[in-house]
Write a structure and sequence with these properties.
The chain is mainly α. The chain has 23 helices and 2 strands.
Length: 584
């Protein structure tokens, strides 16, 4: 009996959700130490898997391959930036932060810079970064639910919020850690299985990363040459070409790298292992686990691009397969018959311009609302949302229904794992850094744990609103979070470890400068004047995705200037810095 993809998706998602809730109940936190850093007793291999799940969000699972599929070589900025940034974090920051032995990044900033004001600025940065990042994750949850479980996006987001509530609020970091280990297993299996299927079908090579450079089955032509030929023939840029300027590519990649090293929800993972040595070991394991997906993503993008072109270009609309009409109904795929011939033409140029939904409308009418006043000069009739490529690809390639269901479960695992980590960071910043360390130092450990759970619950509710009213593409939104992290946290953490002269005045001035400049630039070009969001109006040709690098430079410059005209830190702080740099 052939079980439908929808039924299998309900089974796979239901089983995975039951597993996550079961782990949360089993590993329920009973102290603030367990809630914040899992008691500091997580094995390096388990922490490596949990870090990989925390790191590989909906942007990595859902959106990265989609962006590479559409942009070709230019999409490599995500691969280079995120992977290089993780190496930077593992080598230069994580071991030292673990030796410092604090619960949160604001805790490090507050103690290192001997200032409650610096701690409060760091809390503001954490909240800005985390809520920006979590909006992308909740959008990913809505995408999966709206298509595969055939419920509206709002309902899907609410279900996702409920699941996260169980293992984030009940389990804290302890529950999240072991849940993320399970989520990593689900997401990596879900990503690799369809990629292996595709690689075998197109190149007869079982390893997707090698299939990318292999010849096509039955043809004496390399896969990338075939793809370049298909795209240029249809009036699109060659897959191996890039339409990004060199300076913008550099700034985006640098922002992603530095942003990675400044992401609070990733940094806190290294506080959960017993020793400094274990932090280094878990970082190595995490890099291996991450590489499995990142080395596969370009192949998934290339395979998907070939299959989409072969499947939809020249297709009669009345004969469109089920996957086409289902995604069209979701509003994430739209067709406009410009020449009234009933045939889908997929060519270069924009058939439909993606727009944000009206507040309260969801995304159901995305395609229909774009059918007015459209240019007809180009022949392209099809709009495909980047975020659906990984989810739709198994259906396009006619893979077994169980593979389609597996991908849906993997997408949810990726989105929920990162969302939980971000929400925990927000809750600990509020309960530990705002209340315990600033406004209510007299509260008991039990009261602090209660406030942490309440803060997590409120944060989940706000994150759900971001999922219902998404501000953009998943990877695009996440890139903004990395820019904010690069501009605010990275200089302060790096100089806090390696410069004994760095003081509180410089830290506060640098963080505020980087955060305000980067946030203002992004808001202006993305929301205030989106019509000016093009290279002609950008500063030095730097897009909002890459402006975090310039914000980081401003942060460094301001920090060095201010520290040169203000007193050095107290001697005990300088001794502390010296101590955390000495291995034991």
């Amino acid at each position: 009996m052939d079980i439908s993809a929808t039924v299998l998706t309900y089974i796979f998602v239901g089983l995975s959700f039951s597993l996550y809730i079961g782990i949360a109940i089993w590993s329920r936190s009973t102290s603030t130490s367990e809630f914040y850093v899992a008691g500091g007793h997580v094995h390096p291999i388990a922490n490596g898997a949990a870090t990989a799940a925390d790191w590989m969000s909906a942007a990595s699972f859902l959106s990265m391959a989609g962006i590479i599929a559409f942009e070709g070589a230019a999409g490599a900025r995500y691969l280079m930036g995120w992977t290089g940034g993780y190496v930077l974090l593992a080598l230069c920051l994580a071991p030292y932060l673990r030796k410092f032995a604090k619960f949160t990044v604001p805790d490090f900033v507050g103690e290192r810079y001997y200032s409650q004001a610096a701690r409060l600025v760091a809390v503001v940065c954490v909240i800005f970064i985390s809520f920006t990042y979590v909006s992308g994750q909740m959008r990913g949850v809505g995408l999966v639910f709206s298509r595969f479980l055939e419920v509206d996006i709002n309902t899907g987001v609410i279900v996702g919020m409920t699941i996260v509530f169980f293992y984030a609020v009940m389990g804290g970091m302890k529950g999240i850690t072991y849940t993320q280990v399970a989520q990593y297993c689900v997401l990596i299996f879900a990503y690799l299985v369809p990629a292996i299927f595709m690689s075998l079908m197109l190149t007869n090579n079982p390893f997707p990363m090698f299939g990318l450079g292999s010849t096509m089955v039955g043809e004496e032509v390399y896969l990338l040459d075939k793809l370049d030929g298909l795209t240029t023939e249809l009036g699109m840029s060659a897959f191996t070409d890039t339409n990004k300027s060199t300076i913008d590519m550099f700034f985006i990649t640098a922002a992603l790298m530095a942003g990675t090293a400044g992401l609070p929800h990733v940094i806190v993972r290294f506080f959960t292992v017993p020793k400094v040595r274990d932090a280094r070991i878990s970082a190595g394991y995490a890099l291996i686990f991450i590489a499995l997906l990142y080395l596969t993503a370009p192949a998934v993008a290339a395979f998907a691009r070939i299959n989409i072109i072969n499947s939809v270009d020249g297709m009669k609309y009345v004969e469109a397969p089920e996957w086409f009409t289902k995604w069209e109904t979701s509003g994430l795929l739209a067709w406009l018959d410009k020449n009234n011939d009933g045939i889908v033409q997929y060519r270069g140029g924009n058939a439909l311009q993606p727009t944000k939904p009206a507040f309260g409308s969801g995304r159901e009418d995305l395609g229909q609302r774009q059918l007015e006043n459209l240019p007809t000069a180009n022949e392209n009739e099809l709009y495909i949302d980047r975020d659906i490529i990984v989810l739709a690809h198994p259906e396009i390639a006619q893979l077994p229904n169980w593979v389609i269901a597996l991908v849906a479960a993997g997408g949810l695992a990726a989105a929920l794992s990162t969302a939980a980590g971000l929400l925990l960071v927000i809750s600990t910043a509020i309960s530990h850094d705002l209340l315990k360390k600033t406004f209510r130092p007299d509260i008991t450990e039990r009261q602090e744990l209660l406030y942490a759970r309440l803060a997590a619950a409120v944060a989940i509710g706000i994150a759900g609103l971001f999922g219902i009213y998404p501000p953009g593409f998943v990877a695009e939104v996440v890139a903004f979070a990395f820019g904010l992290a690069a501009a605010s946290f990275f200089p302060v953490i790096l100089l806090g470890i390696f410069s004994k002269r760095m003081n509180k005045e410089a830290a506060i001035a640098g963080m505020l400068t980087g955060l305000i400049f980067t946030f203002s630039y992004i808001v202006y070009f993305k929301f205030v004047s989106p019509g000016e969001n093009n290279p002609e109006h950008w500063w030095f040709g730097i897009s909002p995705e890459g402006i975090g690098t310039l914000g980081m430079i401003f942060n460094f410059v301001v920090s060095f200037v201010v520290m040169s005209v203000t007193p050095p830190p107290p001697q005990e702080v300088q001794d502390l810095i010296e101590n955390i740099r000495v291995p034991k």
